[in-house]
Amino acid sequence: MKLAFSTLGVPGLPITDVVRLAATHGYHGVELRAHPEEPVHPGIGLTERADVAAEFKAAGIEVLGLAGYARVAEPGDDTPVLTEIRELLDLARDLGAPYVRVFPGGGTEQSPGEADATAARRLGEAAEYAAALGVRILLETHDSHRTGADAIRVLGLVGHRQVGSLWDVMHTWLGGEQPLSTYAALSPFLGYVQVKDIASAEDTTPLPLGAGVLPLAECVELLSREGWDGWLCWEYEKRWYEAAAPLPELLGAGREHLARLLNDSA
């Protein structure tokens, strides 16, 4: 498996510094948070996009994917959501990123069936655009659809190879789902896996990998046993928890922890 980290852990950090951190600490790739607060987002021009792609290529670091904020199940008109997804897909194509992350974002005023149908309709339409660009859309286990069982209801309706899943191990755990059940649901669709650690269900402040309660060893062992050879991406939510320790000083130990888990599971 290859290892990456998300720029959610280094809010606003210039791309040159992001690339340097990845190279220094032995990560193979980076997930870029695609938000206007960050250096890379759909509003940047073609020259900036080319410069970003060149920096990553020169360092031998991959852009794993773009963490977008489109909410595919949210109530309302389809057009703004589809426009947002297409802009993310265009940016991913320009950066050479294989994946774009989207959220479910279903509303409380919808029934689960209505949210599923809305998400599937939008993802199905966006899938054709994604296919033309060679980029895959990944629905993250998050918010209204935080477990694999939730996500599969949408993915099964879409039935398109360009739409897959992103397994966030914290959200499936918070949803009470065992890793084996999550993998069984998502394995036909799995793009990559976001790893992290927290103290408890009540305190989700990010911790160094291995310092909390999430079943990281179990997840890695399961993925290894099943022969899955994709990406593990450390999503350290520093942006939402200002008091959390700075990510750069944790990256080396985090990579070593993941390497140990991979070695132990081999």
Q: Which keywords apply here?
A:
266 residues; 8 strands; globular; alpha/beta
Distance between the termini: 11 Å
Mean pLDDT: 97
Helix content: 40-55%
**Strand order across the largest sheet:** 1-2-3-4-5-6-7-8
Rg value: 17 Å
Assembly form of the protein: single chain
Q: Which band does the percent of strand residues land in? A: 15-25%
**How many β-strands, per DSSP?**
8
- Helices, by number, come to 9
* Major β-sheet annotation: 8 strands, parallel, barrel
Order of helices and strands: EHEHEHEHEHEHHEHEH
Derived from helix and strand composition plus strand pairing, the structural class reads alpha/beta
Q: What does the overall shape look like?
A: globular
Low-confidence stretches: none
Tell me about this structure.
The protein is an alpha/beta fold and 266 residues long. 43% of the residues lie in helices and 17% in strands. The chain has nine helices and eight strands. The chain has an eight-stranded parallel β-barrel with strand order 1-2-3-4-5-6-7-8, surrounded by seven helices. α4 packs across α5.
Brief characterization of the structure:
This protein is of the alpha/beta class and 266 residues long. The protein has nine helices and eight strands. It has helices at 15-25, 46-59, 78-95, 112-133, 148-158, 169-174, 179-186, 216-225, 251-265, and strands at 2-6, 29-33, 62-71, 99-103, 136-140, 163-168, 190-195, 231-234.
